[in-house]
Amino acid sequence: MSTVKNTASVDGVGPSSIVRATIVQASTVYNNTPATLDKAEKYIAEAASKGAELVLFPEAFIGGYPRGFRFGLAAGGHNEEGRDEFRKYDASAIKVPGPEVDRLAELAGKNNLYLVVGAIEKDGYTLYCTALFFSPQGRFLGKHRKLMPTTLERCIWGQGDGSTIPVYDTPIGKLGAAICWENRMPLYRTALYAKGIEIYCAPTADGSKEWQSSMVHIALEGGCFVLSACQFCLRKDFPDHPDYLFTDMDDNKEQDAIVSQGGSVIISPLGQVLAGPNFESEGLITADLDLDDIARAKLYFDAVGHYSRPDVLHLTVNEQPKKQVTFVTKVEKAEDDSNN
């Protein structure tokens, strides 16, 4: 059953569809995935009690964003301590599907909401930065794997492919995701626009003030709602380790020093900030999305419609899975028994 609220339009032209969306701005419990899931459960229940129909968590909330981690890596160098650090990080990642995914699906169903969660996915011994999607019916809908990890992320995460670029057509709108600096990839954004994305989820680790400008631009460019979710973390939220490099701007080593400042925000298709940004603390960021604003915005600009020039500029997206190994089994022809 649709959870979209239909309210009378002020001009009598028709119903206006309102969706309540909530971002959870919070830190992972590092090296403790069960405790992170418990924390997620608390925030999901709180959001649901306030009427949320969609809840979004930040990038890598399950498993943890390895901010400042170096894993003993340098050009041409590595060490035992770094390898063991990665072992712990690998142990916090989850299999998709798997028991943690089942629990998140159960939480979505229990609280009757759509749920999008950033997670570190484990496939064999390769990790992926992934966004997981769940329905109010308690179903795991699917995932998006980050196409291009950034800087040192490429040493610890694999690259996604075109087979996981979903946009889900739901009763609350067409739902999809771009993770962190994927949002700087114009062609990837265009692919999401072409799939009709209406609620654009941007789980991220970028809490900079400049990020806010990117989110406003994407909302205007795509004519869609943009929900950007970033973790708020203090130094004490991370495992104790002497080799962290959190930032080159602040050398504060105090336990209460902010090392990920959040900045989660919700923006309308008209470029209006509806809620946030919050640079102060963990918590919920909530806004009511008037889906009619999408049509209002498209009057002026439709990036893959009336404001496109396919005769001049054209994008091809390869959605085939990119497998490293393909096994081809030779089938032996059965011997005719009549010849025996």
TrEMBL record:
InterPro entries: C-N_Hydrolase, C-N_Hydrolase_sf, Nitrilase/CN_hydratase_CS, Nitrilases_CHs. Gene3D superfamilies: Carbon-nitrogen hydrolase (3.60.110.10). It catalyses: 3-cyano-L-alanine + 2 H2O = L-aspartate + NH4(+). Residues 19-291 form the CN hydrolase domain. It comes from the Eukaryota. The active site is at residue 59. Pfam families: CN_hydrolase (PF00795). Coiled coil: none annotated. Belongs to the carbon-nitrogen hydrolase superfamily. Nitrilase family. This is Nitrilase 2-like. It comes from Camelina sativa.
